[in-house]
Each structure stands twice: as C-alpha cells, then as structure tokens.
Design goal:
Strand order of the largest sheet: 1-2-7-8
Structural class: alpha+beta
Number of strands: 8
Radius of gyration: 35 Å
Number of helices: 3
Mean pLDDT: 75
Number of domains: 2
Order of helices and strands: HHHEEEEEEEE
Distance between the termini: 118 Å
Oligomer: single chain
Helix content: 25-40%
Largest sheet: 4 strands, antiparallel
Shape: elongated
Length: 197
Amino acid sequence: MRISSATVNSHKSGMSLIEIMIAFAILVVSAFSISGLISFGHRGTEKDFRSVLAIQLLEEKLNLFLSTSFNKVSDEVMSGATKMNVDKTLFSGTTHEIQLGSITEGKTNYQVSATLEKIPVSFGVRPLEIDQSYEFAKVETYRFGALNNKLARFDGSNNGKNRYRVIKVTMMVKWTEPVVNVEKQIQAVSFLVDLES
C-alpha cells in the first residue's frame, strides 16, 4: 500500500491543540512572573518614599530645633508642649527626652522625638611665657607654660560660672513598615552651644 506524499504533508501543517495549550500556559506563567516583579518594585518604591519622607521630617524638625537659642526651646519647636529653658531647670540629670509628637502622611505614622544630653566641656589654657629670648616676629622664641584648665571647665559643677555650655541633640524619627510590620528608625545628631553667656 502506498501513501502519497501529499497526505503526509497535510498532517504536518498547522498547530495542534496541545501545542496551543502549552504556549498559552507559558504565556500565563510569564505574565504572572512579570506582574510579581512589577508589584515588588512598586512596594520597594513606596518603601523608599517613606524613608525619604522620614529624612525630610527629621531634617525639618532638627533645623527648627537648632534655630532657637540655647536658653529657650520655643512652643513652635515643642509642637504644643510647654515652653522650657535649656538650662539646669530642664534636666533632672544630664539627659532629657522630648516627644515632639506624631505626623501622619498617607497611611504611615511617624513618631518624632529628641534626646538632649549635657556635654561637659573643658578648655585647656597654656599661658605664653615672655622672657628675654621672646621676639614677636619669631615663632621659635615662643614658650608656653603648663596646661591649666581649672578656669575653663563647663561641667555643671558650679551652676553660675561653670554651668553646661553644650547640649548634644539627637533627633529621631520612627515608623512601622506596613507590609512586613517592622519598625524603622533614622536619627541625626547635632549640638546646641551657648554662645550668648
């Protein structure tokens, strides 16, 4: 029995139903994978936006805080809290924490706080000893005496003369990431210095 070549070739042209189903399955799996990547990228972008917003809030609150004088922390900075003086009456010890409140942006709640810490400062003084070898124009003739820092110690040991003159400010912003429910925190450190007394 002979089979004509025309009959054999007619069965090979076109696609079978199984081939179409396999191609469709590959297309569906690829589409789900791509949509998962897009969703993951979107969540990452939202997370980055929350971090950037937290940095902006931190910078704004810290700049506002540092724009006040050493001796006063205004109602504006305290976000409605009572006015306080940044001196010995503010602190029960050498540190003090201030809650600056919460700020809600979109679905995220940011908690802003600051920690103030008194920093003892000592200035060492070496007096210039002038003798017969001293010449103003020749640095090599300069002679300095022993280090004396008793007159320039600002550590709160005497509330009048030796009170603290530097306060370390640590500003913090905390928030909780919505999907993973993990608390995030950023902070910045600066200093308030008493240049008025």
